[in-house]
């Protein structure tokens, strides 16, 4: 699984969408929390000011200006020098009588509230100190201002914003990490199913998807896929069985027919009857019998019951023998048949079946290569496998037919005119599979190369 | 030749014995394993034909018993199991030749006659003569009417096999199995091409042909009549 396919995976996209939605809702909730706490804090501060005004105006009513002055002084001295409560009492002309701010703030009131910045030139604190106060008209023209330095409130609000922002970032990061993890887990399990499918497509029909005992939805999917594969396998086996049975059951009556023809032929020979026709019929019967034999041989190879016939053999020698067998046929068509083989390649294989496969390949090469063409049989050895190539200068096989030629009875349009039963390459493929190898068609520019690649195996197996 | 046939299928038995008798052989029949084994051990036969699958006693057991008694009797195994692997088992048990069913009668006849006339071990002649054709197996020299003939190694083996079985029908599969030593099904007439090459060398320049094609069966190398 590479990075780009991971990012493009639907689980990851789904996780990403979820993370985004989640983050947006967290953001909304945090904003709400922020606004309500800010409003609460502000209203707390406002009602404290209102209460103080109430208290002070009552004192003014009972004790007059001196009483009020004493109380304000008392309040100012009792709070810290940097305390947050602000007081100012002025006479009807606006001259300050007592207070901890020097003069009236030069701002207009909104609903009786004044929002202004404190004059901080006498303090060390370089920060701007916003303040909020309320003006109250006392009887007799005196004016009272009660307010609060809301610098602390503002910085508390800033701290809340910072904390909530971190919260959002954390949500995003954790969400992404979680989404990543979940996607990875899901993809890993899907990948197992994919890999198994690939192996089945590659031809190993025995592969099944592993199912864990958890019985989750993936296991149920795997189980269903496995059952489907079993079903397909059963159908394929059924078809193969039927064709094998047909071949087997038809062989016996066909053979009796041949016996009768043979007997008639002998009689006709002595009495001068229709020998020509009988010979033709015999030849046809033989052709059919050969066809059935070839079908049955493929079927038996596919059932893999021949493993015991494997021996250690010299592939170079075997290739030489096949070439030697077909050399006269090639010569009849003025074709050159050459063998290229490294000194000695040995292989654990089924001698007769490998010979049969190579014979089929050379037979095809001689058959389809025009007169005067070249045919080359070459062997090469790799660490874990050996390759046998039969290359010719014939018409080759079109790309779209390269898979089909291995099917039983399949013949390309150009090959229909030549004798053959369409089973030669099927048998080669069956032999390749018997040896756990594979066969492929390649271009020889011009012509065809058939490559048989067989793994080296140990005799113990 | 005296031939013992151990076969439980009456139809096959009738078909084989009739054909063999027509070809001039004496055929004794046994339709089960134990009878067949005692007949094979007690009486004189030139060839034993035994079916691989028999009730009560398997064909392979008969062969193994006979071989354990040091019987030199040439044995041909017939089997409905056409698998080549089966052939290996049969030959390993001590059989001399193996023929899967169904077979052409000529194939059976040719093989039986080849087995029956097979010289015993040690008596293998190294100088073969058919009419005016001579072969020295040791020096690998071939000549006809005192004219030397040069043969390729495979042609030499082919001719040697034909000469050792001169006067007998030799089928194409017999040639494949004995001259090429591979058991496979040639799709085309490869053997015929090899034989015609050989024929060109030994017959073309001479009046009387020695190598004949037997229609529907195979080839025969024989003295001119």
**Mind telling me the C-alpha Rg of chain B?**
19 Å
What is the class of the largest domain in chain B in the CATH system? Alpha Beta
| CATH fold-level assignment of the largest domain in chain B | Rossmann fold
Count of DSSP-assigned helices of chain B: 8
State the total count of DSSP E strands of chain B.
12
Strand content of the residues of chain A, in percent?
A: 15-25%
Broad CATH class of the largest domain in chain A: Alpha Beta
Would you report the number of β strands of chain A? 12
Strand order of the main beta sheet of chain B, please? 2-1-3-4-5
Q: CATH superfamily membership of the largest domain in chain B, which one?
A: Response regulator
Poorly predicted parts of chain B: none
Report on this structure:
The complex is a heterodimer of chains A (461) and B (225). With 461 residues, chain A is α+β, with helices and mostly antiparallel strands. Chain A has three domains: 3-156, 2-Layer Sandwich (Beta-Lactamase), CATH 3.30.450; 217-302, Orthogonal Bundle (Helix Hairpins), CATH 1.10.287.130; 308-455, 2-Layer Sandwich (Heat Shock Protein 90). Chain A has helices spanning 3-8, 10-78, 151-201, 217-271, 275-302, 315-332, 351-368, 424-434; strands at 85-90, 96-99, 113-117, 130-137, 143-149, 310-314, 336-340, 346-350, 374-381, 385-392, 438-443, 448-455. Chain A has a five-stranded antiparallel β-sheet with strand order 2-1-5-4-3. Chain A has a five-stranded mixed β-sheet with strand order 7-9-10-12-11, with helices on one face. The longest helix of chain A is centred in the N-terminal third of the chain and has 69 residues, at 10-78. The model of chain A has no long low-confidence stretch (mean pLDDT 85). Chain B has two domains: 2-116, Rossmann fold, CATH 3.40.50; 127-221, Orthogonal Bundle (Arc Repressor Mutant, subunit A), CATH 1.10.10.10. Chain B contains eight helices and twelve strands. In chain B, the strands form three sheets. Chain B has a five-stranded parallel β-sheet, sandwiched between helices. Chain B has a four-stranded antiparallel β-sheet with strand order 6-7-8-9, with helices on one face. The longest helix of chain B is centred in the N-terminal third of the chain and has 13 residues, at 10-22. Chain B is elongated. The model of chain B has no long low-confidence stretch (mean pLDDT 87). The chains are: A alpha+beta (461), B alpha/beta (225).
């Amino acid at each position: 699984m590479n990075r780009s396919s991971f990012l493009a995976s639907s689980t990851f996209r789904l996780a990403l969408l979820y993370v985004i939605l989640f983050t947006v809702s967290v953001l909304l909730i945090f904003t709400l929390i922020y606004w309500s706490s800010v409003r609460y804090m502000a209203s707390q501060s406002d009602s404290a000011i209102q209460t103080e005004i109430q208290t002070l105006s009552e004192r003014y009513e009972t004790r007059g200006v001196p009483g009020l002055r004493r109380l304000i002084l008392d309040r100012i001295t009792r709070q810290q020098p940097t305390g947050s409560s602000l007081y100012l009492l002025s006479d009807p002309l606006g001259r300050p009588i007592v207070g901890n701010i020097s003069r009236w703030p030069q701002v207009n009131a909104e609903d009786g509230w004044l929002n202004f910045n404190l004059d901080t030139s006498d303090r060390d604190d370089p920060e701007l100190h916003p303040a909020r106060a309320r003006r109250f008209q006392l009887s007799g023209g005196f004016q009272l201002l009660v307010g609060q330095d809301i610098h602390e409130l503002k910085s508390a609000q800033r701290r809340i914003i910072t904390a909530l922002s971190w919260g959002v970032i954390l949500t995003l990061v954790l969400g992404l990490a979680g989404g990543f993890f979940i996607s990875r887990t899901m993809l890993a399990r899907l990948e197992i199913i994919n890999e198994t499918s690939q192996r089945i497509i590659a031809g190993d029909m025995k592969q099944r998807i592993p199912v864990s005992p958890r019985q989750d939805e993936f296991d149920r999917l795997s189980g269903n896929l496995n059952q489907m594969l079993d079903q397909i396998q059963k159908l394929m086996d059924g078809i193969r069985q039927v064709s094998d049975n047909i071949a087997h059951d038809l062989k016996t009556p066909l053979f009796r027919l041949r016996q009768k023809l043979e007997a008639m032929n002998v009689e006709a020979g002595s009495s001068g009857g229709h020998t020509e026709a009988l010979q033709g019929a015999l030849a046809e019967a033989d052709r059919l019998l050969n066809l059935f034999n070839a079908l049955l041989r493929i079927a038996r190879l596919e059932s893999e019951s021949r493993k015991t016939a494997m021996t250690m053999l010299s592939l170079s020698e075997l290739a030489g023998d096949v070439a030697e067998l077909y050399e006269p046929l090639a010569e009849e068509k003025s074709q050159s048949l050459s063998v290229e083989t490294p000194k000695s390649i040995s292989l654990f294989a089924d001698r007769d079946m490998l010979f049969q496969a190579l014979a089929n390949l050379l037979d095809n090469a001689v058959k389809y290569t025009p007169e005067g063409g070249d045919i080359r049989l070459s062997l090469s050895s790799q660490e874990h496998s050996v390759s046998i190539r039969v290359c010719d200068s014939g018409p080759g096989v079109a790309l779209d037919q390269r898979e089909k030629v291995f099917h039983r009875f399949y013949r390309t349009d150009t090959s229909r005119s030549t004798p053959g039963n369409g089973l030669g390459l099927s048998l080669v493929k069956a032999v390749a599979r018997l040896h756990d190898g594979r066969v492929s068609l390649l271009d020889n520019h011009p012509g065809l190369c058939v490559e048989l690649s067989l793994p080296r195996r140990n005799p113990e197996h | 030749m005296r031939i013992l046939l151990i076969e439980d299928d009456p139809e096959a038995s009738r078909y084989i014995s009739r054909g063999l008798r027509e070809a001039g052989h004496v055929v004794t029949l046994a339709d089960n394993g134990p009878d067949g084994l005692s007949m094979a051990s007690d009486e004189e036969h030139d060839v034993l034909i035994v079916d691989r699958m028999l009730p009560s006693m398997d064909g392979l057991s008969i062969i193994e018993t006979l071989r354990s008694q040091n019987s030199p009797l040439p044995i041909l195994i017939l089997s409905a199991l056409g698998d080549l692997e089966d052939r290996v088992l049969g030959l390993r048990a001590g059989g001399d030749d193996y023929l899967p069913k169904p077979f052409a009668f000529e194939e059976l006849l040719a093989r039986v006659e080849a087995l029956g006339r097979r010289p015993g071990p040690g008596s293998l002649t190294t100088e073969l003569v058919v009419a005016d054709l001579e072969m020295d197996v040791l020096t690998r020299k071939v000549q006809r009417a005192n004219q030397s003939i040069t043969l390729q190694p495979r042609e030499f083996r082919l001719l040697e096999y034909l000469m050792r079985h001169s006067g007998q029908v030799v089928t194409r599969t017999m040639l494949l199995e004995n001259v090429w030593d591979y058991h496979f099904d040639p799709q085309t007439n490869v053997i015929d091409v090899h034989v015609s090459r050989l024929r060109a060398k030994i017959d073309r320049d001479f009046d009387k042909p020695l190598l004949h094609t037997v229609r529907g069966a195979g080839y025969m190398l024989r003295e001119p009549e």
